[in-house]
Amino acid sequence: MRYDFVCPSPTHYPFQWFWDSAFHAIALLQVDPELSKQELRCLVQGAQPDGYIAHMLLWERRGNPEWLKPEACIRLDHPFFTGTIQPPVIARALERIYDATGDLGFVREILPPVLRFVHWLECVRDADRDGLVTIIQPDESGLDASPKYDAAMGIPSHPPEATLPAWRRSMHRLFDAYAGKSHEEQATLGVFAFEDVMMNVIYADALRALARLVGLAGMPGADDLERASGRTHDALMQKSWDPKRGLFWISRDRARSASRCSPSRRSFRLCCRISTQASRSVSSTSTCSTSASSGSPIRSRVSLPARRASTRPG
Known about the structure:
With 314 residues, this protein is α+β, with helices and mostly antiparallel strands. The chain is 40% helix and 10% strand. It has one domain (3-135, 195-303): Glycosyltransferase (Alpha/alpha barrel). A hairpin with a 2-residue loop joins strand 4 and strand 5 (81-82).
């Protein structure tokens, strides 16, 4: 299998990250749209038959053994991919590639695994069916060890030298809880379950972009995607927006008891303010199902800052 992707850093970050690749694909439109397309082609080679796409694809893992040590704090589902997700920026990247190239053939090629992934998010990570997906460890928000989750993880800020060891212990506590359990089981444990605001804004935007692309490609499901995006937007405004303070709160997911949480009580404050008007721009779309994709690891060249070519993972 061939892999070809933009490597964030050949020494420190040698693998392919899910949302990094989506941003790389957008930036590469200023260089060569064909490289943008290859970035996404490489990424979706990691899609599993059930729709799951990991946040890391470990191309050339044998050459980077330090990433497999406990202190790296990554959770593997497979020798070549992790058991963790990231926000679905891939849909916006696909839309941007279409806007720049008008290539509907490429859209039809990439849509099935992307649609299947958002369907996976709906089925596995929205247990209470309120339109908001749940993250089950802090780095699934895309912000890695963001301090906004320190309280939930039991991580102290003082003394400073205690922060990193506490973070590692807390991450391994989550890993131990998830070990041997299916994705569906992990999502219902509640050891760490938050309806992260940024994750869900990106999820709503992904559904909106997919609704548009599905319509352009002449595929069924555009109206459902549009409705699902609107539902996620409305749920964010209802559960997370605090008009008195002018900010969003990150809500703890209580899906196991099917109860709704009050954003002003069971939540952590988002570290940035977002205006009501900006929040409404995530507007409308929904979810849908698709056909299968390859479950094997990936092929790649690596570029910007370094691009490698290989015909098999290793």
